[in-house]
């Protein structure tokens, strides 16, 4: 089952799905923080994969930059939830369609590790993303991601956008180093401070103490 976003009902469903993704991020995370700049033009975006929210965050990145974005996912996942196609999901096997979208100046996102992994060093990368980049003649963009529970009640998400790589380049070392830099920065940053260079791009759910603090301060002034 493939849903066309051109149909009115499909457009309504698309808005509903995107609203659910936005609400999920806002209600589940304390915030999403971004470092780095995304270059203009078509891209093959590559990101490590270690959390439930990774697909949501890829979608958010495309939405923030107002770029059509397709995330390559396993066929069985999209077969089970075909409505996700309206939010940009595309079967990993539809290579020609991915190339067509890149040719239309869109983004295609890939989790090149090929699976969700326990947080840690970057795992071995599959060659598909580099092949797509080379075939379409568009840059690869490494993005390191961590969703971590630090000094607040709810987890926080950090996205570090790296420098674009030439089409077809091997992204293993650049993405691995970027992820290692992100982990090191988080490790040396106080759990209640925003790491250097990051800015909040989505404000999520505050901790209980943060929510009651205005009341406490008001009572102190009585």
Overview of the molecule:
- The protein has 222 residues and is α/β, with parallel strands linked by helices.
- It has a single domain (8-220), classed as Glycerol-3-phosphate (1)-acyltransferase (3-Layer(aba) Sandwich).
- Helices cover 39% and strands 19% of the residues.
- It is built from 7 helices and 8 strands.
- It has an 8-stranded mixed β-sheet, sandwiched between helices.
- The model has no long low-confidence stretch (mean pLDDT 91).
Write a brief structural summary.
Helices cover 39% and strands 19% of the residues.
Spell out the key features of this protein.
alpha/beta, Glycerol-3-phosphate (1)-acyltransferase, 39% helix, globular
What is the topological layout?
Blueprint: H1 8-28, E1 31-35, E2 43-47, H2 54-64, E3 69-73, H3 75-80, E4 89-91, H4 95-103, E5 107-110, H5 128-136, E6 140-148, E7 156-161, H6 172-188, E8 199-203, H7 208-220
Parallel strand pairs: 1-7, 2-5, 2-6, 3-4, 3-5
Antiparallel strand pairs: 1-8, 6-7
């Amino acid at each position: 089952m493939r849903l066309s976003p051109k149909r009115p009902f499909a457009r309504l469903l698309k808005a509903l799905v995107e609203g659910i993704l936005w609400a999920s991020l806002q209600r589940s995370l304390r915030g999403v923080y971004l470092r780095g700049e995304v270059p203009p033009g078509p891209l093959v975006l590559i990101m490590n994969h270690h959390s439930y929210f990774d697909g949501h965050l890829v979608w958010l990145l495309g939405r923030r930059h107002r770029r059509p974005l397709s995330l390559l996912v396993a066929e069985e996942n999209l077969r089970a939830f075909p409505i996700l196609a309206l939010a940009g999901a595309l079967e990993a096997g539809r290579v020609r369609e991915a190339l067509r979208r890149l040719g239309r100046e869109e983004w295609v996102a890939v989790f090149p590790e090929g699976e969700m992994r326990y947080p840690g060093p970057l795992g071995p990368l599959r060659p598909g993303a580099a092949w797509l980049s080379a075939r379409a003649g568009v840059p690869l963009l490494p993005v390191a991601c961590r969703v971590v529970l630090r000094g607040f009640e709810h987890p926080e998400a950090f996205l570090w956008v790296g420098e674009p790589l030439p089409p077809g380049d091997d992204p293993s070392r650049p993405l691995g180093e970027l992820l290692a830099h992100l982990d090191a920065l988080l490790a040396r940053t106080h759990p209640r401070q925003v790491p250097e260079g990051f800015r909040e791009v989505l404000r999520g759910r505050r901790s209980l103490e943060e929510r009651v603090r205005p009341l406490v301060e008001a009572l102190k002034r009585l």
